[in-house]
Write a structure and sequence with these properties.
Distance between the termini: 23 Å
Shape: globular
Number of domains: 1
CATH class: Alpha Beta
Strand content: 5-15%
Structural class: alpha/beta
Number of helices: 11
Helix content: 40-55%
Number of strands: 9
Largest sheet: 5 strands, parallel
Order of helices and strands: EHHEHHEHEHEEEHHEHHEH
Length: 276
């Protein structure tokens, strides 16, 4: 087991990356396309864009933290004012394909089309070209990462096989920087809930808030002690509720107690690894 600590910029002890997945209605539409005729279910995702994003942005602005917003092209088109505000406040906008596709179920040609449309939509709305890619909920293939590289992605944040960024071998003579993620540092599996279509299928949650914040703190503490990269995933529809936004504030207060934490975006992480 390799316990050698990663070297971070300016002698920092660990890295922390705050990522926001702008799933909006698409999370529910992927589960069941018939949700397009279910305004109550769609409203669960719409809430994140109409209320949750603003709360997150206000907290980040107060603390001077820049986050990475993974964005489907369709969401950029439907909520252009939100995306423009995110850009104006200095956050990174990265790609989440076009319409929350399960990439592993698509042909290579369909994956290319989703990637291309998603990038073009972000360019048209925000005037920026994303350099990072995260697949929507669902699986991806090695072809997905090769296509991401082909369309200008410098990094991926999808896999769960490490706690440190590394160069993923694409088995075609190329590599792509991978910034790993873990389910326990993602709010949606704790909080997403609906009766029909049923999510989770077995029902039986929303998670206890105290348990969730303790999980996130413990995971950060472990990353700090081992000198790793802590990646938090948030969905505005989950964390953006009035009673949950305080969890984010509490976590950021906790992290602020530790010296030598490097807050970074995905693009900054890529640049660091380019220059190592």
């Amino acid at each position: 087991m390799n316990l050698e600590k990663t070297k971070w910029p300016d002698g920092k002890k660990c890295a922390a990356m705050l990522t926001i997945n702008l799933n909006a209605e698409l999370f529910w539409l992927q589960i069941d396309p018939s949700c397009k005729d279910m305004p109550k279910t769609l409203s669960l995702g719409q809430y994140g864009m109409t209320r949750g994003v603003d709360r997150i942005l206000s907290i980040l602005k107060e603390r001077g933290i820049k986050a990475t917003f993974f964005t489907p092209g369709w969401v950029a088109e439907q909520y252009p004012d939100k995306l423009k505000r995110i850009k104006e406040e200095g956050h990174e906008i990265a790609s989440l394909a076009y319409k929350h596709e399960n990439m592993a179920l698509l042909t290579e040609e369909e994956q290319e089309e989703a990637m291309k449309k998603g990038i073009e939509a972000i360019q048209n709305v925000c005037g920026v070209t994303p350099v990072g890619f995260r697949a929507p909920e669902g699986e991806l293939t090695l072809d997905t990462l090769r296509i991401a590289k082909k369309y200008g992605m410098h990094y991926s944040s999808n896999l769960c096989d490490d706690d440190r960024p590394y160069q993923k071998d694409l088995e075609n003579g190329e590599t792509l920087l991978e910034i790993p993620i873990h389910w326990d540092n993602y709010d949606l599996p704790y909080f997403a809930f609906n009766y029909h279509p049923a999510f989770p299928k077995g029902q039986g949650r929303i998670a206890n808030y105290t348990g969730v914040i303790n999980n996130w703190k413990d995971e950060f503490y472990g990353c700090y002690e081992y000198g790793l990269c802590y990646v938090l995933q948030l969905d505005p529809a989950a964390i953006g509720a009035p009673g949950r936004i305080g969890l984010l504030e509490e976590l950021l207060d906790y992290i602020d107690e530790f010296d030598s934490v490097w807050w970074t975006s995905g693009e900054e992480m890529y640049q660091y690894y380019q220059n190592k």
